[in-house]
Structures are given as structure tokens and as C-alpha cells.
Amino acid sequence: MSDVDLGYLSIADASKKLAAKALSPVDLTEALLRRIEAVDPKLDSFLLVDGDKAMASAKAAESAIQGGRRMGPLHGIPYALKDIVNTAGLRTTCHSEILKDNVPKQDATVAAKLKAAGGILLGKTATHEFALGGPAFDLPWPPARNPWNRDHHPGGSSSGSGSAVAAGLTPMAIGTDTGGSVRNPASCCGIVGMKATYGRVSRAGVFPLSFSLDHIGPMTRTVTDNAMMLQAIAGADKRDTASANVAVTDYTSGIEGGVKGLKIGYLRQFHEVDLPAHPDMAAGLDAAVDVLRSEGADVQDVGFAPLADLAATNRVILISEAYSIHRDWLASRPQDYAKATRDRIMPGAFFAAADYVDALRQKARYLAQFNKMMDDFDVIICASSMDPACRIDDEPEVDRTYGRQARTPFNLLGAPAMAQPIGFSKDGMPLSMQVVSRAFNEAMIYRVGRAFERVTEWTNQRPPVG
Amino acid sequence: MSDTPLPPALEAAHALDPELIEKSRAHAARLVAGLEGGYKPDEEPAHIYQAGGSQ
Hints:
B: mainly alpha, about 35% helix
């Protein structure tokens, strides 16, 4: 296979080939390292590539598989980590001057789990500074670019992870999601990004943005690959005080079950009333829902609280907690942050303690409303972004469109939500939808997402980056 | 909203960007206005570390 074909090989297919010894982890890793060298200078999706360690891991994987000691479906599969995920002995910068020389002593739990599953770490990916401030040009490293059009932003904050997966530089990457930061780059880059239930994936060793809203999530090109990756990283963890002691479901066994007879709520209010979407996005969402209906789902319209109010509640909590985390550095080294980061965190200085508690009380109201709604549905379909990704250097348009999204409600609610591709805008940028369900029902989301993916052509499209 | 004077911790940031503090104060006020309010005394917060809080 060519480097390009190996670059776009799904995890499911690569895993089968590796198990059958029809593909070598060394050949796969070498091909991806060559692709990164050739393509990434155009995308800036990686902050650090550790080719030597990757090759050593690949050789160890090859030896183990050849020796009959295969560790599971991800053994020998390369991956990348957003650079706010601690890696023992490997620089972890949060894409910031503040931590540019930070070398952690211990792996984050999610990094340790992927390593234990036999994955091959290729390197660390670009992020908005501290998972918040970006895209920004006043940081030690440039922002990642969108492989569908490198003049456009790739979404964020897990920007490098989204860009690298979409460009076929790695089949999977870890992102983090506090207000939508896995699902935004997934939406912008035409890949699949899952924010699982709060507490489902350990946050231990990942630099916090907002303790009560932070989630860690898998980013892949297909729904099945995403389920395979979540399987490897989900589970209780004593290092994370918010970790859920809930049994991990088998995410792939029912994934081909289809949607016939499932009850799906279409939350069109978000993109038709609250934040009217770009016409291409609105048409794409309607077409996607029609596909699910034609596959036998029982689709009904449903309403929820206004997006602006949900977003405000999320932001009061997020910014309060982020300010608490960054207050000392903002006082002593404000010049070492990007302007965008300072602008986004500083409102946290002006909330009263009671404002923060009120937001947590408001969250309780929304939770009750959401749980009642979910009594009637297996999943909800709604918009992720209201607009295709715009030019990265058009600051006013970036500012206008970044908040036009429907992802923050599901951080607030702790509910699992997945973004997946549903087509392209007239100018060739990816369109997306979200599939949402009740807590710990990720398997249902994957089932619905896979049913859509199976009968459409939007997965595994190759962007024009070589 | 807090009406307290500028905390010393913000002085360096203010010196770097004189508009930042006022923009931030106004933004915080807009966000708080998005909360419904009218919380009854026994309306508890959703607990921060209630993993899987949407159950």
C-alpha cells in the first residue's frame, strides 16, 4: 500500500491486517511519519513528533504480535495526543509560552491507557492555548490549519488533533472538550469526535480548563474507529475525583444494529430559531435526518432551553473555574498568554461567588429538563457548528462564528455527544451533526452514527493535502 | 456582580491592555444576565463532581 493509502486506513481495517500479520506496525508507523514530514509543514497540526520513540514502540509491537502476544485491537495502531495531555519524559506545553519547557514525570491516565493497549504515540498536537485561546498567531507555535482548505481554521481547541486525523497523518487522536473542543475540530475537519459522559474518561494528568466541564474524547475518521478508541480509554480511575464507577459498555458489539424503530428527537430549534445556521448547514442537517428516517427511525421534532441561556450558564462556570486556575499566572505573566486567552479568561475576575453558584443551580434545572426530554428518545440530533469553518486570518469572522454552536449544552449536562460529518458546503468545507443521548449511553450514539455512516458517502473523504 | 475595585492581581494585565478590564467586566455581566435567576432556597446546585450528572 502507498503511504497515502496507509494514512487513510481505518483503525478497524488496520487492526485486522495487523492481527493477520498482513501489515507490520513498523511499516504503518514509518508511513505515517513520512506523511507527517511531507504534509504537516502545510498544516502545523503537530507541535512535537517523536519519531525515534514511535519507531521503538512499533518494533516492540511487531515483535509482540509476531510472537503471539497481541494485546488487543489497538496494538500497533499509531495515535497522537493533544498537547495538554501529560506524557512522561515528553514535553507537554499546552501550546503556551508559560509551559514551553514543561516535561511531566507521569503519563496522564488516557496516555497510559493507550500505551497499555499497544498504541504507538507519534507525537503531540497543536491546541488553542490551554484549550481556550485560539486560533492565535501570538504564541510560540503557529495555529493548526484545516486540511480541506489551509486558509481556513480547523476548529478548536483540539485543532491539531482534528487536522492530523482528517489529513491521514494518524488514524486516531485524543482531544479534550470543555465547551465543544473535540466536536468543533471534528465538525470543521470532517471527522468523528466523541465527548463521552462526564466521568467516563479519566481527566487525570490532563491540564484542566474547567474542572466540572472538562471531558476527554476520541477523534477518528469513522464511527467504528471512534468506538474502538473509546473502549480503550473509558473506565473508572482513582486518580480522577470525578471518574464514574460505572461499568464500561461494549461499544462495538451492537454498532451495526441500525435505527429501525429507534426514537430520534430532532432539535432543530437550535439552528433554526436560536442561532439560524448557514443555509448549507441547515440543508445538510435536514438531509441527514431524512437519511435516518428512511432507515426506519421514528423522528420527531423536540424543543429545549434557548441556546444562548445554556451557553451563558456554561460560560459562567467555565470562565470562573479557568480564572481560578490561571489567576496567579495572569497576575505575574500576562504578557506570556495570547491576547485571545487573556480576553477569554479575564471575565472570570468579575463574577461574584454567588454568580458561580447560581450557574450551578441553573445547571441543575437544565439537567432535570434534559432527563425528562430523554425519557421519550433514544438520541437527539442537532447542529454542532452553525457555520462551516471560515478563514483563519479573518479575525472578525472567527469571533462571530466561534460562538455560533450547539455543543456547550452537553458539557453543561455531562451528556454524551458525538459530532460526525454529513457532507460539504458549496465551497467544499465539511458539514456536521451531533448525536446526543443520556448519560453512559454512548453505545446508542455509535449505533445511530454508524447507521448514518453506512449508507452515506461522507466518511473517509480525503482532503486535498497530498 | 462584584463592584469591588480592581484587584492588584489584575494590574499587570490592565497595563498590558487598558481595555481588557472593562471589556471583561461587561462580558461577565452579559453572561450572568443569561441565568434565569429566581432560585428557591432549596434549589441545590448540580454538584461539581457528580460524575455522569445527567443520569
